[in-house]
């Protein structure tokens, strides 16, 4: 396989059967808690890393008029999604991140110029590190 540079055109995100939108953007941050354990005798900082976290948001355009297009607001699925569910974040074919997430907030917007968007803010749940798959050959 030749070296290929990624663009956002091939991206996608799915939250299982929940939270529908014509997604056109997502971003995620993998982080670890850093705890300062510096002692009185230390001349410089001393830190230990804690657990991994994965947080971010995914957004796009809302749709309606046919079955299974509700973005999850009419039944407030966010309340029923409290234990988390698998979400798949795709950069391109063969390049994905799968993580159990909870939806911590949903933001909707309607603009006179035509945009009717929705954004889902997520946080990792389930105690399992996200699984990244990356096409290398």
Low-confidence stretches at least 5 residues in length (pLDDT < 50)? Answer: none
Report how far apart the termini are. 5 Å
Number of DSSP strand runs: 7
Structural class: mainly beta
CA-based shape? globular
Radius of gyration: 19 Å
Number of helices: 1
Strand residues, percent: over 45%
Helix content: under 10%
Q: Main sheet?
A: 7 strands, antiparallel
Q: What is the arithmetic mean of pLDDT? A: 85
Instruction: Give the oligomeric state of the chains in this entry, treating copies of one chain as homo and distinct chains as hetero.
Output: single chain
Compressed to H and E, one letter per element, the order equals EEEHEEEE
Overview of the molecule:
Helix content is 3%, strand content 50%. The protein has one helix and seven strands. The radius of gyration is 19 Å and the shape is globular. It is mainly beta and 137 residues long. Strands 1, 2, 3, 4, 5, 6 and 7 form a seven-stranded antiparallel beta sheet that branches. The longest helix has 4 residues, at 77-80. β5 (95-110) and β6 form a beta hairpin. It starts with 11 loop residues before the first strand and ends with a strand.
Summarize the structure.
By secondary structure, the chain is an all-beta fold. It has one helix and seven strands.
Keywords:
137 residues; 1 helix; 7 strands; single chain; globular; mainly beta
Write the layout of secondary structure elements.
Blueprint (H helix, E strand, L loop, with lengths): L11 E3 L7 E15 L10 E15 L15 H4 L4 E8 L2 E16 L5 E9 L6 E3 L4
Antiparallel strand pairs: 1-4, 2-3, 3-6, 4-5, 5-6, 5-7
